[in-house]
Amino acid sequence: MSMKENVDFVKEELNSEEKFLEGTVKVERFFKKFKALIIGLVTILIIAVVAISVKNYNDEQNSIAANIAFDKVIANPSDKEALNTLKESNKKLYEVALYLQAKKEGKYPDTEITYLKELTQYQKALSSSDVSLLNTLSMQNDFLLKEFAIFNKALILVNEGKYQEAKVALNLIQNSSKASELSSLLQHYLLTK
């Protein structure tokens, strides 16, 4: 290497060190300027992480306690302590337990859980052969047993001798439905009516 190349090499090294020091000074100035804000944000972040972890832990413990209480209620429906624990830790699971107890007694309990409420209405309509309630349930787009409600409506109409209305109701059941096989069987029966 010649002397000129050595001088150029040293200049480049000094320039890169100078740029590094310049960057360090800029970072240091930025940190001094926003020190309180940076420390505050880091503190808030740490507190948020701890709070979320504690909340998740408490939720998990409540879930475990609710599941244990639910198991106790299923095993022994008269266990009031387990029912109270369930009521405090998980309202929906408490309603499910009450629903199951009422079903064992042959009652149709009132509940706020959407699917259980719909199932109760469906069972009430079937037991009372209420075509209008089955019709109302089957017209709800998000009803869980929509096609079965339509099929049972058609079955009740057939039993009442209203064959034409039953045929119209059966046409509402789609071929992709689980109730389509039952529907086609009833439609074959209705061909002679």
TrEMBL record:
Superkingdom, taxonomy of origin: Bacteria
Transmembrane stretches, start-end: 36-54
This protein's UniProt keywords: Membrane, Transmembrane, Transmembrane helix
Record bears the keyword Transmembrane: yes
The protein, known as: Tetratricopeptide repeat-like domain-containing protein
